[in-house]
Amino acid sequence: MSDTQFDKTWQKRTTRQELWLWLGWLALVAFFVFCWEVMNKNTIWAFVSDAPRQAMDIGSRMVPPRWDYLPSLMEPLWDTIAIATLGTLMALFMAVPVAFMAARNTTPSTRFVRPIALLIIVSSRSINSLIWALLLVAIIGPGVMAGIVAIAFRSIGFVAKLLYEAIEEIDAVQVEAVSATGASKAQIMDYAVVPQILPAFAGITVFRWDINIRESTVLGLVGAGGLGLRLQESLNVLAWPQVTVIFILILITVLVSEWVSAKVRHAII
Amino acid sequence: MSATAATSYPRTWSRPPFVKRAWLRWTLYLGALLYLILSVGSVEVNWVRVWEGLDRGLRFVEGFLVPDFTSRWEDILIGMEESLTMTVASTVVGVLISVPIGIGAARNIAPLPIYAICRAIIALSRSFQEIIVAILFVAMFGFGPLAGFMTLSFATIGFLAKLLAEDIEDIDESQAEAVRATGAGWWQIVNYAIQPQVMPRLIGLSLYRLDINFRESAVIGIVGAGGIGATLNTAMDRYEYDSAAAILILIILIVMAAEYSSGYVRKWLQ
Question: Considering CB atoms only, which of B50, B88, B232 is closest to A31?
Answer without folding.
Answer: B88
